[in-house]
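ubiquitinyl hydrolase 1
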Amino acid sequence: MASEQNQIYHERQRLQFCLLHSLNNLFQQKDAFTGASLNSVAEKLVLDDPSKEIWTPFSLVFKPHHNSVTGNYDINVLIAALEGKGKTLIWHDSRNGASAIDLNDGMLMGIVINVPVRRYGGLWKGRHWMALRKIDGVWYNLDSDLQEPQCFKDCGEVREFLEYIISHDGQVLLVKNDDRQLYRRKKANYGWYPFKQS
């Protein structure tokens, strides 16, 4: 098991860059995203916002969608970053429970989770991003707070973990491959689309 885990890419937590680490762990690639690329995404979101940012002396550090020094990116950055890679983010309605998630869905790339955390003896409260991904048929917890990736024994254990997250004010977000990419791959491989073109 240790040799398998050595082959799995896993970034460890630094400052408040947990969203950056989660994305790189999800894509299993160093620098799939960088601090600079996520800052650029966050700044573009501000430019595209009709109610533009009002500048204050704090604006150099505390931006609308991130902290320019420590990271701390918000959900808008996550959505835009994933869309830039041809992925779709779907919020899982916690009222349905974890049992409603199809962990064997071929379109499911992975799962991003946002959970409340307390640090520094409870003096600081915030939220933390982490990623789960199925690699070679096995689901892994790729949380950057962990020393190393943790594997789940089966889908039942993944659902138990997700149920715990949901019951403790966590948010579960499903990362899906874009349908159009799947259809393009099918056409390239088999020369057809699964539906009529208009």
